[in-house]
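Hey, I was hoping to borrow your eyes for a little while. There's a protein on my desk that I can't quite get my head around. The fold is given in discrete form, as structure tokens running alongside the sequence. I'd be grateful if you could look everything over and explain what you see. Here's the protein in full, and shout if anything looks odd to you:
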Amino acid sequence: MSMVLLIILALILPPLAVFMKGGCSLHFFLNMTLYALGVIFAVAFDFPYGGLATIGHAIWVVLQVDE
């Protein structure tokens, strides 16, 4: 999959981008946990930027070079 498409997907739906990059790995489950905590934080405290940690993690995973 194209790197540009994965980065755009990481901005829109971060867990899906991590899944497309590495499958059901530890990074996917970590990203899902960050995503869920971000949504809970955003809803509970009316904070619109609750998912920034998820986006940052997803972009980091997408930009990693495969060995």
